[in-house]
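fold-stage: in
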Amino acid sequence: MLKKELRSLFKAKRTELNEDQIDSKSLQIANQLLRMPIWDYLYYHLFLTIETQNEIQTECVLQILFGKDKEVVLSKSDFELGTLSHYLLTENTSLLKNTYGIPEPVDGIEVPESKLDVVFIPLLAFDIQGNRVGYGKGFYDRFLAKCRPDTLKIGLSLFEAVPEITDTSVEDIRLDYCVTPEKVYSFGVETSS
């Protein structure tokens, strides 16, 4: 299917989920993550939930990261440039929702992409080859292109894979893993642990 079709289809599927279903699926995803060999790293980039989009609740993942004493990094969007800047989440970090309802750090200690070991990636859909469909603005593709080649790219999805996204491009950055409530999809990555 085409990205545009998948975007419409999976936005509609998300709207059918109620809060309890999202919470339950989010907890299942967090439990899947705990079983993965991804916890020997230090810098983990996480997205915070856009409530109005019925996204996965990443609070569970955040608690895991804090419990494992990891450095958590959040992004701030620049909609004019289409870029993300990244900040360390500390007890002094102030968060503010932007015009799209994304909670973002106001300011803080900036972290370069080269420091990031693991990036958790929001998405609407993904296929069995590790291609993903986001909201269509290209923020994450531009961001991931600046990360180290060995940075683990892990999609978090409320739904299972589709067979194929037919209109991928060379700018699209493939996932290393995608985690759903039911299973962990691996796309040929070797981990350090």
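fold-stage: in (second)
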Amino acid sequence: MFDSLSDRLGGVFDKLRGRGALREEDVRAAMREVRIALLEADVALPVVRRFIDAVTEKAIGQDVLKSVTPGQQVVKIVNDELVEMLGGEGHVDLMLEAKPPVVIMMVGLQGSGKTTTTAKLAKYIREKHGKKALMASLDVNRPAAQEQLAVLGEQTGVATLPIVVGQQPVDIARRALESAKLQAADVLLLDTAGRLHVDEALMAEMKAVSAVSTPTETLLVVDSLTGQDAVNVAQNFSGEVDLTGVILTRMDGDARGGAALSMRAVTGRPIKFAGTGEKLDALEAFHPSRVANRILGMGDVVSLVERAATAVKAEEAEELARRMSKGQFDLNDLRTQLRQMQNMGGLGMLAGMMPGMKKAKAALQQSGMDDKVLVHMDALIGSMTAKERANPAILNAKRKRRVAAGSGLQVQDLNRLLKMHQEMSKAMKQIRKMGGLKGLGALFGKGGMGAAMPGLGGPGGGGLPGLGGPGGGDIPPELQNLLNNKNK
């Protein structure tokens, strides 16, 4: 979402970092470019003014201009103010410790993704907080809205309130509250009706439901692709309803990101979650500092590690570690790694979370590697017999033609896969010689895994920061600590 804004800001800050000394005029000129970048990203004008004024005031101070690295100091000030604009340090989680059932009322316009987000949130509450949830649809206007929530409930394994035809929203809310108490549900999620625009009927209905259910949380669901209009919607709702937070949907889209940057300042309420895809597990806690890091091209290693912890099964990781310690790495192991990368969001998502995001994504594009490559590799390995996967050396010309035909790809594609596996297998043997995971850091440098995988830090790939090879960088400190702790 923030690619365009990130590119613009990256260009501005590259100029600042390239200067040995800064004058006040240089800072003010850079801030003018930042102002234009934010306005082009659809950030609300009052928010932009406050942001630029705060940054300029701090950036033209003598402590900054006279420092050894003034350009870096300005970037840090922008980062700090960006975090503040997005809501401050840390994620503001749901208030679930009240007397059960805790009522969460979902509000927003029709088409913003309220119903799907309700199901995602229920799944999040059950899996992350270990609480029993009940969902109820109060949308009697949109055709099949209640049936949609019932289907989503089956898919997520969360109970939904049985549908009573003809019952009105306030009565449904009362019945849902009673049912939640009888079922000993910890949390009750009310999916209210939306409209195509904010009107008196919508507000009256929400207030009536709120009066009956007395919600602990009233969350506004906003489609971030609507841009500046999302800010207007948030203003209208916050003026009528006592909101406790905001959920932004479709954060994986190609919108300019202004809605996300403006929402906290306009509503005065924290952004609690962000929808990052259509799948029911594509709901992320919103961390202002991490989003700010992504915007400024600093990466988001913490989220990357969290995704890895979710996507990688402990048994598979232990089995791979055991095989690595013996210097073993066959095509079954490679297939497991490819699928884990897909579960973590694919190459583009992983590159976007690494420090130097812009360079990382450019390297992927230049090397021709995208998420289809992972699918193609998986298809090739799937076309092999169990014996061939365990011992790729037996793949002669005849077998290769059969495998390529079975996967719908070319023999050249298979040869590239086998070469990559061969290089990675050598790397695994190097790990064993170097004493296991303790020596893994050396492999990210010259001649190691970065060089072994074209497009991921090797020659011709352009280099991904943190994955070695020409154009790459050192391992991020967070990953180095993770490796050290894992070794212990």
